[in-house]
Write a structure and sequence with these properties.
about 130 residues, alpha+beta, Nuclear Transport Factor 2, Chain: A, seven-stranded mixed beta sheet, 7 strands, about 40% strand
Length: about 130
Amino acid sequence: MSQENVEIVRAAYDAYNRGDLDAVLSYAAPDFELDWSRGVGPQRGVYKLDEARPFFDDFGDTFESIRIEPKEFIEVDDDVIVPQTGYTSGDGIETTARITLVWTIRDGAIVRICLYQDKQDALEAAGLSE
């Protein structure tokens, strides 16, 4: 089942990079949760499914261009741990940010995405160490 989970996460990244939020959110379970409580910046908190689109729209409106590059997909039970690099630009400024997301998949749907600033913290949250 975990390879199927990786494919769901990979498809969500592809959809996000195409700007297709409908496709991203089509993978979300009704009880979906986006945990951005460890975020740095104005967007911090835990968001339910009905709050996810405004969250992503607000983030997208901040930049002219956004590209997320997953570095690897680490499978752990229902979780897929993804260290990633985000490339954003706007108003002549380009930024690069590295974070790690833990995607929890159950019954073919994304039930949770949790942000960690550090890959090691994400691994430990999933019961692993680097």
